[in-house]
Amino acid sequence: DALSKDGKIVIEVEAGRAYRNNQFLKDIFQACMMPNVDYLVIAVRNEYKKGDDFKSIFQFLETLYISGRLHLPLKGVVLIGY
Q1: For position 37, what pLDDT does the model report?
Q2: CA dist., res. 67 & res. 35, Å (int)
Q3: So what's the pLDDT on residue 20?
Q4: Most buried among 13, 14, 50, 73, by the most CB within 10 A?
Q5: Residue 80 · residue 41 · CB < 8 Å
Q6: For residue 51, what are the β-bridge partners?
Q7: Which pTM does this prediction carry?
Q8: Mean pLDDT for the chain overall
């Protein structure tokens, strides 16, 4: 949805379907494939169709990070709930 002037930060805003359709994973993959991108910011709805998208995605990312089984070429991922 947006790219910083220096091309190092990508911002994705998901209005819905971020968790149920794994859109957040597509966003991560695409950011990893973009040259010179260091950070990804993903904004997701706190609640979507009676599910807590923010919490579900947070738990997924936390587990991914803690496990150490997948190393992303990004310096950081910021998750924002709205």
Answers
A1: 98
A2: 26
A3: 83
A4: 14
A5: yes
A6: 48
A7: 0.89
A8: 93
Closest C-alpha among 73, 62, 81 to residue 8? 73
Contact 49, 76 (CB under 8 A): no
Q: Report d(CA 48, CA 50) in Å as an integer.
A: 6
Higher-pLDDT residue of 18, 75: 75
> E strands, 1-82, where?
2-3, 9-13, 39-44, 76-81
Angle ∠(36,46,68) on CA atoms, nearest 5: 45
The one-letter code for the residue type at 77 is V
For residues 54 and 44, is the Cβ–Cβ distance under 8 A?
Answer: yes
User: What pLDDT does 47 receive?
Assistant: 79
